[in-house]
């Protein structure tokens, strides 16, 4: 494994571990998701450049578009949660309580 592949896989793993173990605020969960998506985007872009193929050239842009949609949806949920509950703690969110 090259150092470049190791750095992207470790960045993705750190984002995943931060999402799994540090679940106190919704904003920190969204930042971990964005870090994971950024490492995936850079890895896909470099993979496309490495193979020099035009067949996979749209894949990083498609991932970036989905990442932007995910970020906007997450921020909208963050604002809605902060308005209704007063904070963004994930412990206060209960789906069974309406």
From TrEMBL:
Keywords: Electron transport, Membrane, Mitochondrion, Mitochondrion inner membrane, NAD, Respiratory chain, Translocase, Transmembrane, Transmembrane helix, Transport, Ubiquinone
Reaction equations catalysed: a ubiquinone + NADH + 5 H(+)(in) = a ubiquinol + NAD(+) + 4 H(+)(out)
Any Pfam family: Oxidored_q2
Claim: NAD is one of the keywords in the record: yes
Keyword hit for Secreted: no
GO biological processes: ATP synthesis coupled electron transport
Membrane topology: Multi-pass membrane protein
EC number(s) on file: 7.1.1.2
Sequence intervals crossing the membrane: 6-22, 29-49, 61-80
Enzyme class: translocase
Compartment(s) where it occurs, according to its Swiss-Prot or TrEMBL record: Mitochondrion inner membrane; Mitochondrion membrane
One Gene Ontology CC term in the entry: mitochondrial inner membrane
Chief location of this protein within or outside the cell: mitochondrion
Source species, domain of life: Eukaryota
Molecular-function annotations in GO: NADH dehydrogenase (ubiquinone) activity; oxidoreductase activity, acting on NAD(P)H
Record family assignment: Belongs to the complex I subunit 4L family.
Function as written in the Swiss-Prot or TrEMBL entry: Core subunit of the mitochondrial membrane respiratory chain NADH dehydrogenase (Complex I) which catalyzes electron transfer from NADH through the respiratory chain, using ubiquinone as an electron acceptor. Part of the enzyme membrane arm which is embedded in the lipid bilayer and involved in proton translocation.
PANTHER family reported in the protein's UniProt record: NADH-UBIQUINONE OXIDOREDUCTASE CHAIN 4L, NADH-UBIQUINONE OXIDOREDUCTASE SUBUNIT ND4L
Full protein name: NADH-ubiquinone oxidoreductase chain 4L
Protein's organism: Rhodeus sinensis
């Amino acid at each position: 494994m090259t150092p470049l592949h190791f750095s992207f896989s470790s960045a993705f793993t750190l984002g995943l571990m931060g999402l799994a173990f540090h679940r106190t605020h919704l904003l920190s969960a969204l930042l971990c998701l964005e870090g994971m998506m950024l490492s995936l985007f850079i890895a896909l872009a470099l993979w496309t450049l490495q193979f020099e193929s035009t067949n996979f050239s749209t894949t990083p842009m498609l991932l970036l578009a989905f990442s932007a949609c995910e970020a906007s949806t997450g921020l909208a949920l963050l604002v809605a949660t902060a308005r209704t509950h007063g904070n963004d703690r994930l412990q206060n969110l209960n789906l069974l309580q309406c």
